[in-house]
Structures are given as structure tokens and as C-alpha cells.
Predict the 3D structure of the following.
Amino acid sequence: MTAFILQNEMPIRLGFFLGVFSLMALWEMFAPKRVLQAPKARRWADNLGITGAGALAIRYFFSAGATGFAMLVQKNGWGLLALVELPYWINVLACFLVLDFAIYMQHLIFHHVPLLWRLHMVHHADLDIDVTTGARFHPVEILLSMIIKMGVIFLIGAPVLAVLVFEVVLNASAMFNHSNVRLPLGIDRILRLFLVTPDMHRVHHSVIIKEFNSNFGFCLSWWDRLMGTYRPQPLKGHQDMRIGLAKFREEDKLHFLSLLLMPFGRTTQKNS
């Protein structure tokens, strides 16, 4: 199983990425939640450019990726799970939950540590929110996120399968909950008991600071509820809420190169 995963990780991850991306893009086309404000073609080019830069950075610095590192951890018997004997499926489930909580905590920390916020504001500076926003993260943030994941994998001794499943689900859920799609309220109400829905996560991209500092989860919605960071709806409603950052509103200054240089500029103030 481990050898199969390592040999086929790239096509598995790419296949899920393209499949979920295409599905959400079509859903946005036929059932959008909001009317987008910024030119879509320009935004998509810039957002996917940032996504590509992050992918290249990971391949250059961490060619084996998180699953390759998990293989090394498993081979050497590192981590807490190596000290106990549990059924394999419990190990996989436990590792998935721990990794998802770690991403929640990482997200929260990136909002509150000024140096890390400089990187994360590239994600929040998008004037609209759609499926491409879910993969728009500065390459340096992507690298730091990989280091954090590797640290968690090392500490718990995560199985390779758990890491692959988590990576696939994390990418898919990020595209899903950033999508500009319309979900019936009844379905949204049920889904968000377990998963972060588009309406739930959209609140997090508001310019209003109380909303901006809420709903940090990417996959499971439980962490926000347990940690007291859950906010059900935006104050002004989903149609009238303002997306993005108060200090970055000029479209001509939010192109690909500007986004790469944004963390190193002078203006890093959060929303007002």
C-alpha cells in the first residue's frame, strides 16, 4: 500500500485537484452566490499564477512532499503512535483529526503574528472569493505550512495513507469552502455541523475585523465551535458584505508580481 501511494501520489493528487476545481468552477458558473466585483479573467490568472509558484516552491525544496516524509517517519519508527499498538484505521483517523486541528491552529496563528500575517494577507487581499482563492497562498507561506505539517507528522508518527488522505481532502475542502456557490440554507445548516461550507468560510474573508478573525477551519467545522471562533453569518449578509482587506482595494496593484512582493512592503495593517 505504501509503495503504491508513493508511486502514484502525483496523479492521485492532481486528479482530485482538477476534478474538484472543475466541479466547483462549473457550479459557480450555473449557481453563483454573489456577483463578482473584480474582472474574473485577471483574477484567475493572478491567483493561479500564485498557486503555480507555490507548487514549484514545494517541488524544489520538498521534492518528496509530506507523504515522502511520512514514509521516512514510518520507516524509522518515529512518533507517538510508534509507542502504542492500535488498529490501523484508528491511527489513520486520529492522524487526520490531529492534522486538521494543526491547520486550524496554524491559520489562527498566521492571523495574529505580524510577521506571519505579512505572508497570509496575500490570501485575504483578493477582492472577491471563489474557487481560485482557495489555492491563492504566498509561496513562502506554502513552504512554512509544509514545515509545520512535517513537524506534526514527525511528532505523531502519521501513516502515509493518513497523510495522503489529509492532503487530498485539505485541497478539496479549501476549493469547496472558498467557492462562490449557492447552497440551499437547509443543506448548508446540516453540512456545517461537520464541514466548513462556503457560506461559513466566506464570513472569514469579510473586511470587518470581528468577522475576519473567525471561522478559521478549512475542513472540519468543529474546531471553530470548540475554540470559540465560530461566527454563523456576516453582519451585512452574504450579498452586501465587503470582501478583502481595507488597505488593498486597487485592482491594478493586486497583480501577480505585486502579490509576490506584498509581504515585503510597508503597508501591512489589517482590516478596519
